[in-house]
């Protein structure tokens, strides 16, 4: 008989406990039945865990499979906090339950007025501590006090955050062209807002807020916008009662925090004036940077939802414990009275690390929208209304109502740290856990390139209502980070001094190699095919460029690059005349079959110039189709023959999703059709006699114009992993030419 600590919850047991040969030796994974065994052999807290699992937040459907489910525990020391985190194998690590202590009495009632006695538990895990309760309403006095205290602290103590604030008279501030003036002359009167033109000469005296939110386009309830037809009415003023709920709530926040002006994009930009839209969207970065604070409506799906009148998920009291009292005494002093509570883990906003954002992540609606990424990253101060709590973010601090503390590597922090947006003086690149990318054999790699690639990966997974906004919605952020690319020109989402590496992107694929069902090409022209912006869906970058695993050699070089901009904003929209010329080997290949891997379809490729070549896995960027064009044969004397030749290739299909072809069997149309392969780089791993060759799959742009013979568009990418000593590299690289990609 030994004095033991519980193997599952790690509570000190109050008496001798026999060693059970069937007991779990570790808390790595367990079932409810393991908790029951532990409880029967002396651990009272394991019974509390059973209650938390069975009655905390599980619905009836989940309870049916409760006995078969495996659970994991993150103990307070492991989690770096003072609560115990419990989640099932079906849930991601960021989901689950938080179990913690709270001051209280011996009674609790899940329904008001119906109290029930709580069980007294004499043992609980080491490190379990007291956590503040999150108010049930975003409009509670505690919530307003939380916001006001952090705003006051930032204004009085954070010098960097006040650099662009109106209180700093030495700083030149760029104002938006228009602001909404909030008119509330007396308590209880109807509140009006007026659209007013700003005076640049009075910028130092203007204190305004900005709003970041999801518009939520619907045919039946469109958002309120300023247009040329209602501009006069907006200048005269409208009652806030006529505004969508999200906008009304933003006005309420401004009044509570003594701010009388606010910038809201839908109302401060004339939406049907293309020139005004282009001018104001180009200034988006400075608008959010210079705002006194940004109100982030993170939890609302559309502008017609309220973020102030939502009800938050509460907590459940499941036991009472004694803190500080001896285990062998029945004396319970007033300051020792605590209850054990359980609540759903708050897993959004700055509680979610950037690498934890997956397709099924429980992120707030605001973090699914593309425009809001730069709004969040560039704001000096943000008051974030999530569905479960209010969070505070500024250049010097973060805080939250749940009292458990934010994580250190959110996407906002990653962007700001990667490009030093908070300091604006020197580039400080966090190299931990990041790969170093070689750009060219004869150049020094940019330290900012990996940061840009991860930024693009995050941005590309977010949704846009209008495909054409793919580049404009990132333009303010691109403009802000451009100084860290050594005066590189910006080419439709790529940087001129890093063009080859910028070409090494792929449409998001699952583990089988199949592209995401949501990957598609823009229905209207957005960007040249060599740019990631031409694909609607998430993109990633080639890990084969990691220099630690081999010797990397570029097989292509940039001969020319021509970008024609659609507006005066060089970071915004581009026109279809844009192209890049690569000097590189060009090989003819064909798609030979559609493989089936784990119920998903993959493409294989063969080379025409290499005898008995193996097949290699190809990945298309989106739906493709078979295209043909007839050209007349020409005699040597220049006259035209009567015969014609049909040229066949594969092209991008812009009117569907990739799943349409897999489901409808259209893929049979593009087998054995000649397309082209351009290798970009090779990575030779001498120790393993292996070489990886990574390049682009191209379809020909068929045209009657003679100069179009070497014009192509990207349709996918190909990665070859071959035996260095066996592969015929000479045949692959012998046909070098200039390839123009539109």
Number of helices: 17
Through-space gap between termini: 77 Å
* Proportion of helical residues: 10-25%
Report the radius of gyration as a whole number of Å: 30 Å
Going across the major beta sheet, what is the strand order? 10-8-7-11-9-12-15-16-17
Would you kindly provide a written description of the structure presented here, covering whatever features stand out?
There is one protein chain. This protein is α+β, with helices and mostly antiparallel strands and 742 residues long. 19% of the residues lie in helices and 27% in strands. The protein has a nine-stranded mixed sheet, with helices on both faces. Strands 1-2-3-14-13-6 form a six-stranded mixed sheet. Strands 27-28-29-34-33-32 form a six-stranded antiparallel beta barrel. β28 and β29 (616-620) form a beta hairpin. α12 runs antiparallel to α13 (449-460). The protein is globular. The N and C termini lie far apart (77 Å). This is Heterokaryon incompatibility protein-domain-containing protein. Residues 208-375 form the Heterokaryon incompatibility domain. Pfam families: HET. It comes from Rhypophila decipiens.
């Amino acid at each position: 008989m030994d004095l033991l600590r519980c193997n599952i919850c790690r509570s000190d047991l109050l008496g001798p406990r026999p060693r059970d040969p069937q007991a779990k030796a570790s808390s790595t994974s367990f079932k409810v039945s393991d908790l029951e065994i532990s409880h029967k052999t002396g651990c009272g807290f394991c019974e509390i865990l059973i209650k938390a699992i069975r009655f905390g937040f599980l619905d009836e459907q989940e309870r049916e499979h409760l006995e078969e489910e495996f659970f994991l525990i993150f103990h307070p020391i492991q989690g770096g906090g003072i609560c115990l985190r419990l989640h099932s194998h079906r849930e991601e690590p960021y989901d689950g339950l938080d179990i913690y202590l709270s001051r209280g009495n011996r009674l609790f009632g899940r329904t008001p007025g119906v109290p029930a006695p709580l069980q007294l538990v004499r043992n609980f895990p080491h490190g379990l501590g007291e956590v503040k309760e999150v108010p049930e309403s975003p409009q509670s006095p505690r919530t307003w006090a939380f916001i006001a205290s952090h705003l006051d602290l930032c204004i009085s103590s954070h010098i960097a955050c006040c650099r662009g604030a109106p209180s700093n008279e030495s700083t030149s501030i760029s104002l938006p062209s228009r602001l909404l003036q909030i008119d509330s002359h007396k308590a209880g009167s109807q509140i009006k807002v007026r659209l007013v033109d700003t005076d640049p000469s009075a910028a130092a005296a203007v204190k305004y807020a900005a709003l970041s939110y999801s518009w939520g386009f619907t045919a039946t309830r469109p958002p309120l916008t300023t247009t040329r037809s209602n501009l006069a009415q907006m200048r005269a003023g409208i009652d806030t009662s006529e505004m969508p709920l999200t906008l009304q709530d933003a006005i309420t926040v401004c009044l509570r925090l003594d701010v009388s002006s606010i910038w809201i994009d839908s109302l401060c930009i004339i939406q049907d004036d293309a020139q005004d839209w282009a001018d104001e969207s180009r200034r988006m970065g400075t608008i959010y940077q210079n705002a006194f604070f940004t109100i982030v409506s993170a939890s609302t799906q559309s502008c017609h939802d309220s973020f102030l009148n939502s009800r938050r998920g509460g907590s459940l009291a499941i036991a009472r414990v004694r803190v500080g009292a001896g285990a062998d005494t029945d004396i319970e002093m007033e300051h020792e009275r605590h209850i054990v509570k359980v609540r759903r883990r708050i897993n959004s906003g700055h509680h979610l690390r950037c690498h934890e954002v997956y397709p099924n992540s429980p992120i707030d609606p605001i973090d699914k929208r593309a425009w809001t990424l730069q709004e969040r990253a560039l704001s000096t101060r943000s008051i974030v209304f999530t569905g479960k709590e209010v969070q505070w973010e500024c250049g010097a601090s973060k805080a939250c109502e749940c009292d458990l503390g934010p994580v250190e590597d959110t996407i906002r922090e990653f962007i700001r740290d990667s490009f030093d947006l908070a300091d604006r003086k020197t580039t400080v690149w966090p190299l931990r856990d990041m790969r170093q990318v070689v750009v060219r054999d004869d150049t020094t790699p940019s330290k900012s390139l990996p940061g840009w690639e991860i930024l693009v990966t995050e941005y590309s997974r977010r949704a846009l209502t209008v495909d054409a906004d793919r580049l404009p919605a990132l333009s303010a952020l691109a403009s802000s980070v451009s100084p860290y690319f050594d005066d590189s020109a910006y080419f439709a989402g790529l940087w001129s001094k890093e063009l080859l590496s910028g070409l090494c992107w792929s449409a998001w694929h699952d583990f089988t190699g199949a592209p995401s069902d949501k990957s598609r090409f823009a229905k209207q022209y957005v960007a040249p095919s060599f740019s990631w912006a031409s694909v609607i869906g998430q993109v990633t970058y080639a890990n084969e460029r990691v220099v630690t695993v081999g010797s990397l050699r570029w097989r292509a070089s940039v001969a020319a690059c021509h970008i024609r901009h659609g507006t005066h904003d060089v970071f915004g929209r581009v026109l279809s005349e844009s192209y890049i010329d690569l000097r590189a080997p060009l090989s003819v290949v064909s798609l030979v079959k559609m493989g089936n891997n784990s119920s998903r379809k993959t493409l294989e490729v063969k080379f025409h110039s290499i005898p008995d070549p193996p097949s290699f896995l190809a990945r298309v960027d989106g739906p493709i189709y078979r295209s043909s064009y007839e050209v007349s044969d020409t005699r040597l004397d220049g006259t035209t023959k009567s015969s014609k030749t049909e040229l066949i290739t594969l092209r991008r299909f812009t009117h569907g999703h990739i799943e349409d072809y897999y489901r409808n069997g259209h893929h049979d149309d593009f087998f054995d059709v000649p397309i082209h392969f351009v290798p970009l780089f090779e990575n030779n791993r001498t120790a393993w006699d292996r070489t990886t060759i990574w390049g682009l799959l191209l379809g020909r742009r068929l045209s009657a114009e003679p100069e179009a013979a070497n014009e192509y568009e990207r349709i996918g990418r190909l990665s070859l992993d071959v035996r260095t000593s066996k592969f015929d590299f000479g045949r692959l690289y012998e046909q070098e030419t200039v390839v123009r990609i539109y």
